[in-house]
Amino acid sequence: MANHSQFGFQDASSPIMEELVEFHDHALMVALAICSLVLYLLTLMLMEKLSSNTVDAQEVELIWTILPAIVLILLALPSLQILYMMDEIDEPDLTLKAIGHQWYWTYEYTDFKDLTFDSYMIPTTDLPLGHFRLLEVDHRVVIPMESSIRIIVTAGDVLHSWAVPTLGVKTDAIPGRLNQTSFIATRPGIFYGQCSEICGANHSYMPIVVESTPLPHFENWSTLLPS
What we know:
Blueprint: H1 15-47, H2 58-87, E1 94-101, E2 104-109, E3 116-119, E4 141-144, E5 148-155, E6 160-164, E7 169-173, E8 179-184, E9 189-195, E10 207-213, H3 215-224
Cofactor: Cu cation
Keywords: Copper, Electron transport, Magnesium, Membrane, Metal-binding, Mitochondrion, Mitochondrion inner membrane, Respiratory chain, Translocase, Transmembrane, Transmembrane helix, Transport
Protein name: Cytochrome c oxidase subunit 2
């Protein structure tokens, strides 16, 4: 999760998030090059004496027309590639359904029989020592690591949004509609998220906690969880 005074992204825990971080760095480098060039030209114009050499400079006009088009292509191609990757739904190893309510989440493991539970935020007064305020829940979403997870997201009342930044996942929960996305957790850990759509008075009190574990631990958890 994010630390105090953190300026960058959280550590990526899925291939999609790794691609998003790399694209962010790529776009920043392009923006830095553009700002440096513009600053250099402004400084040059202020320091040099006035000249009429650029009154009829078709070569310069050609360059400043083609160069922005090339820059846009350098930004658009990797962006489109990531968008298509985010929309791809491979053959999933596990399907999970998340239903947003005011103000808690309901999870259904559709590959298991009667594996359904509600996930509420733990109030500050009941929070165990060392746990995160406004982020910890009574029932975490447990998934096997290095497995393709498909999550189907919907809502039972108003608009919600299921978002876990470190996994690169953000899917709107809309009443009467099923949205889906997929991700792969590349390492074990506990990943925190929150509802990212204003959904009422307690919008900030419906966190999301995803726990990624090795497959044997996940199988043990699924057999021990009461229905």
